[in-house]
Write a structure and sequence with these properties.
The complex is a heterodimer. By secondary structure, chain A is an alpha/beta fold. Chain A contains 14 helices and 13 strands. By secondary structure, chain B is of the alpha+beta class. The chains are: A alpha/beta, B alpha+beta. Chain A: Its main location: membrane.
C-alpha cells in the first residue's frame, strides 16, 4: 500500500471507525451476572399467590383474568463474592410465580419485581400441569414458548399430574430441580419406562401436524418426584385425554423400538417364582399393510438380553431352561402389549405409538386421504406383532446345579 | 412556528457527538499527512563534500601532517615512526588503538620491518638495497594476508577506522600501504537464545558478517551460493550481504531485493530491523512481512526454497524474503522430527495462534452477549464467580491483559534470576490476589493465562507480538458487537492478509492463491518422501528437490 493511498483513505476509514464505535456503543451488552438465569418453568391453573394478592391490595393490579400461573425457576447467584463455594453444597434457586392470562405479559411483570429479569436461554424444562393440558390446547399453550426467541429449543417438555409448581421444588437441594428432571431422561439405558425426551423443537412439528403424541408424566409427593408413565395428547384437540401407566409406556417403547435397556419381570409358569430378563437390545420392524382400504400392521420385535435374576430352580447351562425363560418373557411382554393396544385403540382411540409415520412413508397417497382422521383409522387397524427374546448371557455367575 | 423548527433541530448532545466523529479522524489524518516522506532525497553527489582530493606527496612528514589534520583532535590514532631495518629510511605505521590487532602489528609487521629486515635471515638482510621500495616490502617483507594501496587521505582515514594499519614510507611513491590488521570482537556461533530447539543444530549467527557468510558457506550449498556484498548507510557504512542460490532463486526476486536495498538512504543502519522496516511492502500492517532469524538452519532451508537472505554486519539477525504467514508458525524442528509429530505440533501452533488472538475476545462475547452459548452449569458458575466483580468484562479483560503485558515486558528486561521471580510474583500472586479482591473472576485469569501461553507457543517472536496487538483490537470489536464483531474482525483480518504481499508473494499463500501442491508444507508437514518439489509460490528456477 503506497503512502498516497493511505493518506487518501485514512480520513474515510477513520470516520467509519468512529461512527462504528461512537454510534453503536456496546450494543445489547448484558453481563452474565446481571441476568436472571432461568432454568425451568411450570404452568398451572391460575391461582394467585399470597404475595400477588398482597400486591394487588396495595394497588399493584392491572387488567387481567387469572387464567394461568406461570412459575419460573431462577438461579440465585452465590453471595460468596469472589471464589465459588458451589459444588456439593446447596443449590440456591427461587421459584417466582406470576398469574395472568398472557404468558408474555406476566413474564414482563417480573422486571417490576426483580433486578434480574428472566433470561431464557438456559431453559431446561417446561412442566405443564395436567389440569391446564386438559383445558388448553397445546398449540395455544406453547405459542409463547416457541415464538419467544430467547427460549432454548432443546428445552424439555413434561406433564405433571397435579400442581406443576411442585415438580420444580424438591426437598433434596443437592441439584437444581430442573436439571434433575433433565438428567432423569438420560436414564433410558437403565429403564424402558422413560419416554424418549420431547423437546420444544420436537413438539412443534407434532403440534403443527395435529398428531397424537405422548409427553412424559411426572408425579410429586412431599417434595419428591417420580416419572410415572405418560400423558396422551390427542391430536385433533391438542388437549390431554388421559394417561398411560408405567408399564403401558414401556410397551409403547417396545413397539416403537425406542429401548436402550430395561428389565422385563415375569413369573415362572410352574413355580410362580420371579424371573428377570434384562433387555440389552431391542430392534423393531414395523411394516404397514394396505388391504382393500384397511390398514394393518406387522410389528416384529427382536430382543436380546441377559438373565438378570431368577428365583426358580434351573440350570443356567441348560438350553431348555433358557427357552422356558424366554417363553415366559415373551408371554409377559405380549400381555403388556395387548393391554396397551386395548387401551389405545378402544379406550383412547389415539395413536400413541407413532405408527402414522410408517403409513405416511409406505402409502403416501392413502395417507393424504386419511391423515385428517388418522386416530380413528388407527383404532380400527389390526396390529399383529411377534416377539423374539434371546437370553445371550446370564451374568457373572457360573454355579452349575449339582446333579 | 419557531418551536416546530426548534423541535426538529438535534440536541446539543447529538451535535457534540457529531463534532467529535468528524473532528477526530480529520485531525488524525492531518497529523498523518505531516509525517510524509520527502519527495526527493538529496542525491549523493550533492551531499558529499568535495574534500581530500590531495594526493600524498611521498614526503613522510608532510603526509603525516595531512593525516593528522584529517583526524583532527582524535586521540586514539597511534602513529609509530621508525626506521626500516638498520637504515635511516624513515617510515611510519598508523593504526587506531583498540580496533587493530596489536599483536599482529607488533609481532609480525613491526618486527619484520625493523628487526628481520636488519638481522633476520642472512640472505635477506644482505640482499636488501636501500632505499627500500614499497614493492619490495610487499613482495618480501610484509607477511600479512590482506594488503592494498590507497592514495587519498580520506580513504586512509576510513581504512584506519575500520581497524587496518597504514604504512607510510619516506621518499617513496605517493601511495600508502594498507595492511589488514582488523581485529574483530565476535562471539562463538552458539545456540541463539531467542529460538531454542530440542532437536537440531545448535548453531546460530553472530555479529560478524564474515563469520556469518562463512557459516552459510560451510553449512549451506557451496558452489551455487551467491553472496553479493553491498555497502549501506550514508554516514556509517556497513557491509550488507545478499545471499541466494543462483540456480534456485528467482532472478527477478533477487533484483527486487537489490533495488530496494540500494534505495535505502539512511545515515546509519544499526540492525537488520532497520532494513526490514525500510524494504517491507506495507508498513501499516501489523504482520511482519519479513522473517528475521538467528538460526543458521532456518536461513539455509529458506535459501533452498528459493528465498533470499539479507545479512548485515553487526547483527546476528538475518532476514529472509519473501515471507509468508505460515513461515511464522513453522519451526525447523517440524522437519527434524518425524512427520506425524511435526504435523500435529504444527496444527497445535495454528490453534495456539487462534487462541492467542481471539481468546479474550471470545470470552467477552460469551460473557457479555451470548450467555446462551455457554453450557448451563458453566454459565451458572461464571455468573456466581462474577457476581462480585464490579467491572464489565471488557474492563476486566483489559486490566489483566495490560498487567500481563507489563509483566512480560518487565520480565524481559530483568536479569534471568530476577525475571523468574517477577513471573511468580506477577502470575501467581497478583492473579490470585486479584481474584480474592474481586477485581477479576477466576475464569478470566484462566483465559488470560491460556492466551499468554498460547502467544509464547508461536516460534517467531515478532509474529507473537503481531497477534498480541490484534488481540486487543479483537477485544474491542467483541466488546462492541459480541461474537458478530469477532466474526467481522476475523473477516477484516482475512481480507487484509489476502491483500498483503511480501516481495511479490501473496502473504497467505498457499491458501490464497490456492496451490494444492504447496499444502504439503502448510498446516500439514507431509512426509519428506512426498515433498519432492520446492514451493511453487517461489517461482524457482529449479523446482525439483528430490527425484
Amino acid at each position: 500500500m503506497s503512502w498516497d493511498k493511505v493518506k487518501k483513505r485514512a480520513p474515510k476509514f477513520l470516520i467509519m471507525l468512529a461512527v462504528l464505535v461512537v454510534i453503536t456503543g456496546c450494543w445489547s451488552r448484558r453481563e452474565i451476572e446481571d441476568l436472571g438465569m432461568t432454568i425451568g418453568a411450570a404452568v398451572d391453573i391460575g391461582e394467585e399467590t399470597k404475595i400477588e394478592e398482597a400486591f394487588e391490595e396495595q394497588g399493584g393490579d392491572y387488567e387481567k383474568r387469572n387464567v394461568l400461573t406461570l412459575t419460573y425457576q431462577v438461579v440465585l447467584p452465590g453471595q460468596s463474592g469472589g471464589l465459588a463455594v458451589t459444588g456439593g453444597g446447596r443449590k440456591n434457586y427461587k421459584n417466582i410465580s406470576v398469574t395472568g392470562d398472557s404468558f408474555y405479559e406476566v413474564t414482563r411483570e417480573i422486571p417490576l419485581m426483580r433486578g434480574r429479569p428472566i433470561f431464557g436461554q438456559h431453559y431446561k424444562v417446561i412442566v405443564i400441569s395436567d389440569k391446564v393440558a386438559q383445558q388448553v390446547s397445546m398449540k395455544h399453550l406453547f405459542d409463547f414458548f416457541i415464538r419467544e426467541q430467547e427460549f432454548r429449543p432443546s428445552c424439555l417438555v413434561l406433564i405433571c399430574k397435579g400442581e406443576a409448581k411442585q415438580a420444580l421444588d424438591h426437598k433434596d437441594k443437592s441439584d437444581f430441580p430442573s436439571t434433575r428432571l433433565l438428567a432423569m431422561t438420560n436414564n433410558q439405558y437403565r429403564s424402558s419406562r422413560i419416554l424418549p425426551p420431547v423437546s420444544l423443537s420436537k413438539l412443534l412439528p407434532e403440534i403443527n401436524s395435529s398428531s397424537t403424541f405422548l409427553l412424559q408424566n411426572v408425579i410429586t409427593a412431599d417434595g419428591e418426584i417420580k416419572f410415572a408413565g405418560a400423558a396422551v395428547i390427542y391430536g385433533k384437540t391438542g388437549k390431554l385425554i388421559g394417561f398411560l401407566k408405567e408399564e403401558e409406556l414401556e410397551a409403547v417403547n417396545w413397539l416403537s423400538g425406542k429401548v436402550e435397556g430395561g428389565v422385563v419381570k415375569s413369573y415362572d409358569e410352574d413355580t410362580g417364582q420371579t424371573i428377570v430378563y434384562e433387555l440389552t437390545s431391542l430392534k423393531t420392524k414395523i411394516r404397514p399393510h394396505l388391504n382393500k382400504g384397511r390398514i394393518s400392521f406387522d410389528i416384529e420385535m427382536d430382543s436380546e438380553g441377559r438373565l438378570g435374576e431368577r428365583w426358580n430352580e434351573g440350570d443356567d447351562f441348560d438350553s431348555h431352561s433358557m427357552k422356558q425363560i424366554e417363553k415366559n418373557t415373551i408371554r409377559q411382554m405380549s400381555k403388556r402389549i395387548d393391554e396397551l393396544l386395548n387401551k389405545a385403540q378402544k379406550e383412547y382411540r389415539a395413536d400413541v405409538i407413532g405408527l402414522s409415520e410408517y403409513v405416511r412413508i409406505y402409502y403416501p397417497r392413502t395417507w393424504e386421504k386419511i391423515k385428517s382422521n388418522w386416530d380413528d383409522v388407527f383404532a380400527e387397524a389390526e396390529i399383529r406383532y411377534q416377539i423374539k427374546a434371546k437370553v445371550k448371557e446370564f451374568g457373572t455367575t457360573s454355579i452349575k446345579v449339582q446333579e | 412556528m419557531w418551536n416546530i423548527i426548534a423541535s426538529h433541530l438535534p440536541s446539543w448532545e447529538v451535535l457534540f457527538q457529531a463534532l467529535i466523529v468528524v473532528a477526530v479522524p480529520y485531525l488524525l489524518s492531518r497529523m498523518m499527512s505531516k509525517t510524509q516522506y520527502a519527495d526527493h532525497p538529496p542525491s549523493k553527489e550533492e551531499s558529499m563534500e568535495v574534500t581530500s582530493q590531495r594526493d600524498f606527496t611521498g614526503k613522510l612528514n608532510h603526509d603525516l601532517e595531512q593525516v593528522k589534520n584529517e583526524f583532527g583532535q582524535q586521540a586514539d590514532i597511534n602513529i609509530r615512526s621508525f626506521c626500516l631495518g638498520h637504515s635511516t629510511q624513515q617510515a611510519a605505521l598508523l593504526f587506531v588503538n583498540g580496533i587493530s590487532d596489536r599483536e599482529l602489528i607488533d609481532q609480525h609487521i613491526l618486527k619484520s620491518l625493523m628487526c628481520d629486515l636488519a638481522y633476520g635471515d642472512n640472505h635477506q638482510a644482505e640482499n636488501v638495497t636501500y632505499p627500500i621500495t614499497k614493492q619490495y616490502l610487499k613482495d618480501h617483507v610484509l607477511a600479512v594476508g590482506v594488503i592494498k594501496e590507497v592514495d587519498r587521505v580520506a580513504d586512509v582515514k576510513t581504512e584506519l577506522l575500520r581497524g587496518h594499519a597504514a604504512l607510510m614510507l619516506d621518499n617513496s611513491t605517493s601511495k600508502v600501504i594498507i595492511l589488514g590488521t582488523r581485529k574483530e570482537i565476535t562471539r562463538s556461533a552458539g545456540e541463539p537464545s531467542s529460538e531454542i530447539l530440542v532437536r537440531g543444530p545448535r548453531m546460530g549467527f553472530n555479529e560478524s558478517i564474515c563469520d556469518n557468510t562463512t557459516l552459510l558457506r560451510q553449512h549451506g550449498e557451496k558452489a551455487d551460493l551467491t553472496i553479493v556484498q553491498i555497502r549501506v548507510g550514508e554516514r556509517v557504512e556497513k557491509e550488507l550481504a545478499i545471499a541466494y542460490i543462483k540456480d534456485v532463486a528467482d532472478e527477478d526476486l533477487v533484483q527486487e531485493v537489490r533495488n530496494r536495498i540500494e534505495n535505502i538512504t539512511l545515515d546509519d543502519i544499526q540492525d537488520t530491523g532497520y532494513i526490514e522496516q525500510l524494504i517491507e511492502d506495507n508498513f501499516l500492517s501489523p504482520f511482519p512481512q519479513i522473517q528475521s532469524t538467528e538460526r543458521l538452519d532456518r536461513v539455509v532451508s529458506a535459501l533452498m526454497e528459493g528465498r533470499v537472505a539479507i545479512l548485515l554486519d553487526g547483527t546476528p539477525f538475518v532476514l529472509t524474503v519473501p515471507t509468508t504467514f505460515n513461515m511464522l508458525l513453522q519451526s525447523p524442528e517440524d522437519y527434524y522430527e518425524r512427520w506425524i509429530p511435526g504435523t500435529l505440533v504444527r496444527i497445535l501452533r495454528y490453534f495456539a495462534a487462534f487462541v492467542s488472538t481471539f481468546g479474550p475476545s471470545l470470552y467477552i462475547s460469551f460473557i457479555s452477549f451470548h450467555q446462551g452459548l455457554i453450557p448451563t452449569k458453566l454459565a451458572l458458575s461464571i455468573a456466581d464467580t462474577r457476581s462480585g466483580v464490579p467491572f464489565p468484562s471488557l474492563i476486566e479483560v483489559l486490566i489483566m491483559e495490560v498487567a500481563l503485558e507489563i509483566l512480560r515486558e518487565a520480565g524481559l528486561r530483568l536479569p534471568k534470576p530476577i525475571g523468574q521471580t517477577i513471573g511468580i510474583v506477577g502470575g501467581l500472586v497478583i492473579g490470585e490476589a486479584a481474584v480474592q479482591a474481586g477485581i477479576v473472576s477466576p475464569l478470566m485469569v484462566i483465559v488470560v493465562a491460556v492466551t499468554a501461553i498460547s502467544s509464547f507457543a508461536i516460534p517467531q517472536y515478532n509474529a507473537g507480538i503481531a497477534l498480541r496487538i490484534l488481540r486487543f483490537i479483537a477485544m474491542f470489536f467483541a466488546a462492541i458487537f459480541g461474537l458478530y464483531g469477532v466474526v467481522l474482525f476475523f473477516l477484516l483480518l482475512c481480507s487484509h492478509m489476502a491483500k498483503l504481499n511480501s516481495f511479490g508473494v501473496p502473504y497467505i499463500s498457499p491458501a490464497v492463491p490456492y496451490r494444492l501442491q504447496d499444502w504439503k508444507d502448510f498446516i500439514v508437514r507431509a512426509p519428506l518422501k512426498l515433498m519432492k518439489r520446492r514451493p511453487k509460490m517461489m517461482k524457482t528456477n529449479n523446482p525439483i528437490r528430490k527425484e
